[in-house]
Structure formats: structure tokens, C-alpha cells
């Protein structure tokens, strides 16, 4: 005996997002990333859905990039999707799952009040069922490094000296607007070494020289560590006619 009539689920994830006015930004981003159509088809998905008010909490520059047709859009929305159905009930204390790109998402149920979190962002509405998966509503955007400008990522990883050098050389804005670049970033310790300090002091009086030094720490397109392998590689640096080995 149950205490109410059982209502069958009839709408897909795409339909639930489209009909709810608090998800207009998310709907637009899913559409630009080519994922909204996929969420209308049969499947098994979990969507951590951020609201329009959650999106407004982001830094204004990041919001602008994500409302334009920017490559970061795809990285951000894929970070909110899990390619299987994940209900809240099995999360007793801690659990880990993988998003659409295979990156980990950490889930936690706080014992003192039972509140649920994903990557330390609170889930404010859980287990909204669709024909092809489930929605959990979150009160902040889950921002992967791959969805942020380079300058923000440098700051988040405490690489503040190199970030300040980019700003001093007038390169920060240009690199933030680049969608496919690799930086070889000296650590804070490396930049504090006497020889590094002397070299930087010498170039700080010459903006062009400082710019050349920093461009020599870049290459394109994006190169992951696993792409380099064990053999010697030569990469064209951001400084014209100079290569990195």
C-alpha cells in the first residue's frame, strides 16, 4: 500500500531543462556544446544542473566567455554530465564518480544535516527523474580548470609570479583569449632562484625582451605530458624562429 498515485516518468532530460525557466543559461550552453539533442534521446545520464542564479555568481569575465561561442562552453557542460544514472540514496558518506571526460567528481553527504555536495558545491534539489536519467540541481557552477582562462588557472594553482609577469608584459589578455596553447610555467621556487631573479630584473626594463622570454615558454596547439612519450620532441615556441626540445 502506497500513500499516493505512482506517476510514470514521461519527459527526457532535455525536456525538463527546456521547460524550467531557472535553466535558460544551462539550456543555451548545452545546445552550443551539441549535447542538448543527446539528452533528448534514450540513455542513462546524470546531470548536475546549475541554475541561472548560480551562473551569475561567476566572475564577469568568465560569464562573458561562456555566453559567447567559446570552446570553454563544451568543457564546462561536460564537467556537469555523468554517463550513467547516479541517485542520491547510495551516497552515505563519500563517493567518487567520473564525468563525461573521465575526470573525477567527489560526492559527499554531511553527517550532521544530511546535505549533499558535489566537488564541495551543494546539491539543493536531488533525484529529479527523467526517461533517460536524473537531475541534481546545484547552487554553483562546477568549474573545471579546462573551463577557465589561463590567468585564472595560474592563480588557482598558486603560480602567481608567472601570472604577474604575463600581465606586466601585456600577454595575459591575449593568452586568455587563445583556445589552444601550452605553457611551460616555472614554479614559484624556480622564479625565486638568484639566476632567474637576475634575468627577470634585466628584462623588466625592456617590455619587448620580457615578452620574448615569456613567449619562449609557450607552444601550440595544446600538448599533454602523455603526448611527449620518451623520445625527443621539437616544438615550435611562441617566440618566432625558436624551438623547444
Strand line-up across the major sheet: 2-1-7-6-5-4-3
What structural class do helix, strand and pairing data support? alpha+beta
Question: What is the CATH topology classification name of the largest domain?
Answer: FAS1 domain
Taken together, the total number of domains comes to 2
Shape estimate: elongated
Low-confidence stretches: none
End-to-end Cα distance: 72 Å
Q: Which sequence of SSEs, written as H and E, runs from N to C?
A: HHEHHHEEEEEEHHHEHHHEHEE
Strand content: 15-25%
Count the beta strands.
11
Describe this structure in words.
The structure is a single chain. About 35% of the residues lie in helices and about 20% in strands. It has about 240 residues and is of the alpha+beta class. The strands form 3 sheets. It has a 7-stranded mixed β-sheet with strand order 2-1-7-6-5-4-3. Strands 8-9 form a two-stranded antiparallel sheet. Strands 10-11 form a two-stranded antiparallel ribbon. Strand 10 and strand 11 form a beta hairpin. The model has no long low-confidence stretch (mean pLDDT about 90). InterPro entries: Adhesion/Biosynth-related, FAS1_dom_sf, FAS1_domain.
Amino acid at each position: 500500500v502506497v500513500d499516493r498515485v505512482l506517476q510514470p516518468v514521461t519527459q527526457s532530460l532535455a525536456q525538463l531543462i527546456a521547460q524550467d525557466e531557472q535553466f535558460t543559461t544551462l539550456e543555451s550552453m548545452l545546445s552550443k556544446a551539441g549535447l542538448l539533442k543527446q539528452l533528448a534521446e534514450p540513455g542513462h545520464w546524470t546531470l548536475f544542473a546549475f541554475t541561472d542564479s548560480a551562473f551569475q555568481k561567476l566572475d564577469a569575465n568568465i560569464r562573458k566567455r561562456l555566453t559567447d561561442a567559446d570552446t570553454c562552453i563544451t568543457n564546462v557542460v561536460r564537467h556537469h554530465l555523468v554517463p550513467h544514472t547516479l541517485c542520491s540514496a547510495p551516497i552515505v558518506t563519500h563517493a567518487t564518480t567520473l564525468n563525461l571526460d573521465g575526470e573525477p567528481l567527489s560526492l559527499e553527504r554531511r553527517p550532521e544535516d544530511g546535505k549533499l555536495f558535489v566537488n564541495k558545491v551543494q546539491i539543493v534539489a536531488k533525484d529529479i527523474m527523467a526517461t533517460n536519467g536524473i537531475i541534481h540541481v546545484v547552487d554553483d557552477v562546477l568549474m573545471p580548470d579546462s573551463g577557465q582562462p589561463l590567468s585564472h588557472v595560474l592563480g588557482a594553482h598558486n603560480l602567481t609570479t608567472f601570472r604577474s609577469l604575463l600581465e606586466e608584459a601585456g600577454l595575459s589578455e591575449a593568452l586568455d583569449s587563445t583556445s589552444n596553447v601550452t605553457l611551460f610555467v616555472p614554479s614559484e621556487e624556480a622564479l625565486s632562484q638568484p639566476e632567474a631573479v637576475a634575468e627577470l630584473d634585466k628584462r623588466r626594463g625592456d617590455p619587448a625582451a620580457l615578452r620574448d622570454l615569456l613567449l619562449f615558454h609557450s607552444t601550440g596547439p595544446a600538448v599533454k605530458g602523455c603526448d611527449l612519450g620518451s623520445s625527443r620532441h621539437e616544438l615550435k615556441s611562441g617566440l618566432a624562429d625558436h624551438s623547444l626540445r
